[in-house]
Amino acid sequence: MARGDEIEPSVLPALLLRWSGTGLAAIAWLSAAFFGTYIVFFYAGAIAVGTPAQWNANLPGLFEPRAPIGTAGIAAHFAAGGIILLLGPIQLIARIRNAAPAFHRWAGRIYVLAALIAGLGGLAFIAANGTIGGAAMNVGFGGYGVLMALAAVQTWRHARARRLPGRLASHRAWAIRLFALAIGSWLYRMDYGFWILFTGGVGHTPDYRGWFDLVMDTAFYLPNLAVAEAFIRARVAPGRPALQLGAAALLAGAAGFIALATFQFAKLYWLPGISLRIAG
After folding, report:
1. What is the pLDDT of residues 87-99, one digit of tens each?
2. What is the Cα–Cα distance from 99 to 87, expressed in whole angstroms?
3. This prediction's pTM
4. Rounded Cα distance, 49 and 11, in Å
5. Distance CA 115, CA 76 (A)
6. Count of CB atoms within 10 A of residue 18's CB?
């Protein structure tokens, strides 16, 4: 593997892939912790002070007092979303899995259940209320909810059968896909924030039916799955260093984007929002 302080070129692609994956998980956890805390303070805080209509400030139509099923569904979606953002990155770190397997299993059960609730809660909201963006957003977000629920079930199913040949690898692959989906809702907000910051909101309309809105109906989670698939395939392809290097570059780029986005959003939105709730 290594001679002294040198790393053999043959193992460098695998090491870069592992380091970039660990770095992405760590940065994602820090960012998710910020965002998850903001979600708890903003959405749960609005309920605590009796002003749930404030939910509509971020995305119109979230709170509708005449549609209790939809409101309950989106509330479950947000509550479960905070849990999966905090637990997801931790589940992917190999050192934690190896050092504390019991914690990994119990946290995994909570994580999978929360992901299932988040997916089904979002679907309940769409079925009861629809979305502000109409049919295109209904289909895009509905597909997201279905994929989230599917990935949660598959992650749990393969974990249960982990002692059978190949099932542990399948469990880890589905866990990576589930994490890629879990951060979709969080990245959706980041993508809009950067788009509005750099373009002034070209292609975005108040009813979320502009051309950029139509792209974002699925673009907030499909690219995540593409990166996840590249990582999954590169991990099991030791004889293909180009694939490993390409996947490592994708992960490093994603980590850089998340780090920059986290700094900007924490400074402009999350920390002021949390401080406002604490002060209030």
Report:
1. 877 887 778 888 8
2. 16
3. 0.77
4. 56
5. 10
6. 15
